[in-house]
User: Fold this.
Amino acid sequence: MGSTAVEDRLEGFRHEAALYRGIAVLPRAVLPFIREGVARREPVMVAMVPERLDLLERALGADATRVDFVDMSELGANPACIIPEWRRFLDDTRDLGPVRGVGEPVWHGRRDVELDEAELHESLLNLAFDGGPSWRLLCPYDVSLLPDAVVQDALRNHPGLHPSDARPGSELAGYLGHPHARQTFTELLPEPPAQATRVAFHDGDLAALRRRVRDIADGAGLDRAARDNLVLAMHELAANSIVHAGGGGVVSFWREPDALVVEVRDRGRIDDALVGRGTLDLDAEHGRGIWMANQLCDLVQVRSGEDGTQVRLWTWVDPGQWRATSSTETAPR
Assistant:
């Protein structure tokens, strides 16, 4: 079926969800969208996990050479890294007219905290690209595997619902727009668990704090690269707290069943919900530490509102690597 006149006059950003039931019907849900872009000679990028990429590439046949395939399990492992890649794609194709993409940051098997951040990412896409260049982004959701709450979040975060055979439940959520993204960003995360170790820091404490986090990471069995990345990310965030948030803050760290978590919290406030999701600006007054954390850690959560700012760093750990360590100290050494 040919496109409508409205589609032919596409202006700005169109963000749509495509609901499908099972991988077998995925091609039927997204291939017409991809093939239409190829037929129009539009640049097309598809970011999904490898199993789905392989299926679509085979189904596209010769047209697959016209599509840029990206492994979302790598790109979107930390969902905060996805928007910069779409920006790169738009920058690289800026002289080629409208473009389109397919991105699936939410898939069955992701941890709950990853789903939370993927949901925030989907809402922030509208902030990042509304009012910008013309392009379309289709986000598939496998409703046969995902919890209903996740599907409802998809409907809240997407202005459009792409035609498909799958239908959500009778109680449909509606698109909530930019206020929803900003509100989610300003609502602080739950407090660290009772067993978390909390360390207050001020100017002059950073060296001791680095040693402390290094010891904790060693006790968690992290390899040297993961340990050094976590220490550097924590240092950058704590330094920002000292310079920009009243001279200090609190670092908390604790173990989850499969993760070491380090949180830096201070009394400052960040107004930009997209902080750390752009390209690095060495001259920028804010955002450098969060940008670096996004490159260094497995998952990063940022929330900032009237009660201050939290940046929570997650490093995945094989539970078999945990070592017995003491977590009773409450001050830098």
User: Anything to note?
Assistant: Confidence is low (pLDDT under 50) at residues 1-9, 324-333.
